[in-house]
Design goal:
The chain is mainly beta and 283 residues long. The protein contains four helices and 17 strands. It folds into two domains: 8-252, Leucine-rich repeat, LRR (right-handed beta-alpha superhelix); 257-283, no CATH class. Helix content is 7%, strand content 24%. Its EC number is 2.7.11.1.
Length: 283
């Protein structure tokens, strides 16, 4: 039987006293409760060694204007946050985008990131013997997918230079994708799908050389996919649902002449001059 924990406030108060706690996974617990506010939850010594926090699939009800609570963004060694599949709403606090362990390489060198010797059991797909994994490896990651988060994606995200995975899919983020994301040189997985993002993919994304997964499907993005080995290598399915996108791998091909982008809603007029003839061609 799967026994879920209740009373998230008391649980946090007790667990913050575990000075050597490194991994805290409370997934699928506290269903329908609210995360505690900042005041009195994390004191000077609380969660000082915590590196992994998993509160996914709890159906937490917080409105997050100030409450994915900002204390999460102040934990000095935290480098992996999973709060996916909840009912979180509002704007994430800015503290989340300045996690000390993901901003400073100097701070990151002080933490042992080797796989943790931690037996984990999962039910097998055919309901047979549970699968056992003896080591836990975690990437530097923030996963907030499948919530009701909203607002603009803040430029502060660009400070998380050591972040490897960012998943904000299936929320209600709006406006442009911040150019500062291109500062995240270690990024391996970026999923911004199923939001309400608009504008173009920043050209600076060509500097993201380690992306193995990229997804922006079902937004309101437009324009050409930046020319780079990485972005051009992704399948058309990563871009679908953006009707004004164009690119080599998409049904919509970009119509340009000698580096000139097509103006919105208009045709491109290319004028070719030769010794014997002036041609005006409407594409």
């Amino acid at each position: 039987m799967n026994k879920r924990l209740t009373n998230v406030n008391e649980a946090m108060k007790i667990l913050m006293g575990c000075k050597r706690l490194v991994v805290l996974s409370l997934a699928s617990s506290f269903v329908g409760e609210e995360l505690p506010a900042d005041l009195g939850i994390v004191d000077f010594d609380g969660f000082q060694n915590l590196q992994v926090l998993d509160l996914s699939s709890c159906n937490l009800l917080n409105r997050i204007t100030g409450s994915i609570p900002s204390w999460i963004g102040t934990l000095p060694r935290l480098c992996s946050v999973s709060m996916e599949f909840n009912l979180l709403s509002g704007e994430p606090p800015k503290e989340l985008w300045t996690l000390p362990m993901l901003v400073s390489e100097q701070a990151a060198t002080q933490v042992d990131r080797t796989p943790i010797d931690l037996p984990i059991f999962y039910p097998s797909i055919d309901h047979g013997r549970p699968l056992q994994y003896n080591y836990l490896y975690y990437a530097a990651s923030i996963s907030l997918r499948n919530n009701n988060l909203q607002g603009n994606m803040p430029s502060e995200i660009g400070q998380l230079q050591l972040l490897q995975t960012l998943d904000l899919s299936n929320n209600n983020f709006t406006d442009n994708i911040p150019d500062q994301i291109s500062n995240l040189k270690d990024m391996e997985m970026l999923d911004l799908s199923m939001n309400h993002l608009s504008g173009k993919i920043p050209m600076s994304f060509t500097s993201l050389h380690f992306l193995s997964k990229f997804n922006v499907l079902y937004n309101n993005l437009k324009g050409p996919i930046p020319s780079s080995t990485q972005l051009q290598s992704f399948d058309a399915s990563a871009f679908e649902g953006n009707l004004k996108f164009c690119g080599a791998q998409l049904p919509n091909k970009c119509q340009t002449t000698k580096g000139t982008d097509a103006p919105e809603g208009g045709a491109i007029f290319a004028i070719e001059y030769t010794k014997s003839l002036n041609k005006s061609v409407s594409l």
